[in-house]
Amino acid sequence: MTAAATTRARAPRKPDRHEQSVGLPWFVWIPAGLAFLLIALPVVGLLWKADWARMPELLLGDAALDALRLSLETAAISTLLCILLGGPLAVVLARGRLPGLRTLRSVVLLPLVLPPVVGGLALLFLLGRTGLVGRGLDLAFGITVPFTTAAVVLAQTFVALPFLVVSLEGALRTAGRRYEAVAATLGASPALTFRRVTIPLVLPGLASGAVLAFARCMGEFGATIAFAGSLQGTTRTLPLLVYLERETDAEGAVALSLLLVVVAIIVIVVGRPRGSEGLT
Amino acid sequence: MSLDVDVRLDRESFSLQVAMAAAPGEVVAVLGPNGAGKSTLLGILSGLLRPDAGHVRVGDHTVTDVGAGVFVPAHRRGVGLLAQQALLFPHLTAEANVAFGPRAQGVPRREAEARARALLADVLPDVSGLPGRKPAQLSGGQQQRVALARAIAPEPDLLLLDEPLAALDVDAAPAMRSLLRRVIRDGKQTAVLVTHSALDALVLADRVVVLGRGRVVEQGPTREVLGRPRSAFTARIAGLDLVPGVHEAGALRASDGTVIAGRDGVSGEPIGAGDPAVAVFPPSAVAVFADEPHGSPRNVLPVRLASIEPRGDVVRLRAAPREGGPEWLDGLAADVTPAAVADLAAEPGSPLWFAVKATEVEIHPAG
Q1: pLDDT of A4-40, one tens digit each?
Q2: Rg of chain A (C-alpha set)
Q3: At which of B178, B196, B227 does a domain end?
Q4: What is the distance in angstroms between the Cα of B177 and the nearest Cα belonging to chain A?
Q5: Residues of chain A contacting B81 with CB distance shorter than 8 Å
Q6: For B231-265, what is each residue's pLDDT tens digit?
Q7: How far apart, in whole angstroms, are the C-alpha atoms of residue B309 and residue A36?
Q8: Domains and CATH numbers, chain A
Q9: Which of B128, B132, B140 is nearest to B168 (CA)?
């Protein structure tokens, strides 16, 4: 086998100007264009509405900086929690042999379809001072969760967890068990196989899941406001501040919104998974 | 290490019942068509499947014994596997792939890496910078060679080869076959080779076990079993034509009375008139005619063309009996050139004549 043959087989497909497309029917283009505009135009609207002269002043205020710091911190912690808790959950869902696994998976997907406000209320009724678990926490340890930064983290983790679990479970299923079987025939224990084969193989899926979860955490609003309230520096994340500012200072809200757009773009560009590069 | 297997596994539509053995350093080929149970057998040996009854012993190490409740998990069996796909870990370099097994056994890193480099130099001596390459930078044939190095690096007591050449293209397969011969057969590695290719078995295996529908049809030394198949089933796998019948001096009389002239006594076994026997000949010895040939001392069989299968440089024509013809004509093969097929202008269903010289036909006792 020559090296040239190898590289040719491996090189990413470049568009070839000689290639003649079989064509798309014209009526696909119109709704496709509308869909694209529906996503892109509102962002353009934000840019158009922005007061660029006042931008530094609007973004560098105490309230804005507090919210940005809080958002980044809580989203980072929540994403970490998603990985630590959701990772093993995805492994169980993809590899485990339990009765009722399908039901379990449906439950895990619940936060995806549940209105976030409802999720927040549910968390409040569970962990509130009179809640199922919250009462015990309060009596035994004097801990109250709602309306604290911890509540923000919990709310974000609640809504973001399925994003990580779903994309990681998909990666695990795609990778299949074949490599793990090979590792076993080479004498690797299940723990070693998990560490040296399974995890590296699904790293791209884990990364894309983490990016999605982080983005979801940054944008979280409903569950946070229901469960954690809106206290500057403690629970008022960027989306909450945007909503609050909208009433009093529309231009401030626009500026903060643009900040969220920038964060989102960074997440997509930097964090977008490289696919399953290297996988044959 | 020797291998001693006697297992049974039942599924709803399939059951496997196999007893076989391999002496230390011996390579046993398991031959059979798809669905014969070859992969199931390998799964049982490697510890990925649990049989319903029986035992598997590797050396004096019992790895499966259903009666005694023994089941050693795959990673503690010392049973290696080389599969159809190389399945190199895509995130590791070639060297790290080969060092993986020794490392898992607790061999110190430097030593494992040195062993990996030596093995890589052995299987792929002419590729520069091989140890540092990722699998994606290697061709399919190269990947399979690295996979072989990886499989033998932990020095397994038993190596399983699951159609190791099936996924390679025609350019890469012969070189890989001779590498396997050198590393496995000459290296006295006890191995079980699963294949549907008689050529692989002839080149690589000391003995063959022919498997059909989950049962052992025939087993013995490779040349004996494949050279003198006792059943049409084995003959078909060996790529030979076989006609069953009874012996007659210098000929075989088939069930319908057709006499096929051939050479008897080639196997050295005594055979008397009326004893059960088989006539065996290679498909390449069969000439094909559209009209009945005359005037040469040949066995001429009237058939109907069943199928046309391209096989490399030749085309294999499969026969079926004509209306009311004898059953044993079914599946007889003739290898002819593409030009000959064009001259015949035959299509499935066409009547043809298969002719084979008596000197090409061997008559063996059937037992």
Answers
A1: 333 344 445 566 777 777 778 888 999 999 999 999 9
A2: 23
A3: B227
A4: 15
A5: 181-182, 185
A6: 777 887 778 888 888 888 888 898 888 899 988 76
A7: 52
A8: 53-271 (1.10.3720.10)
A9: B140
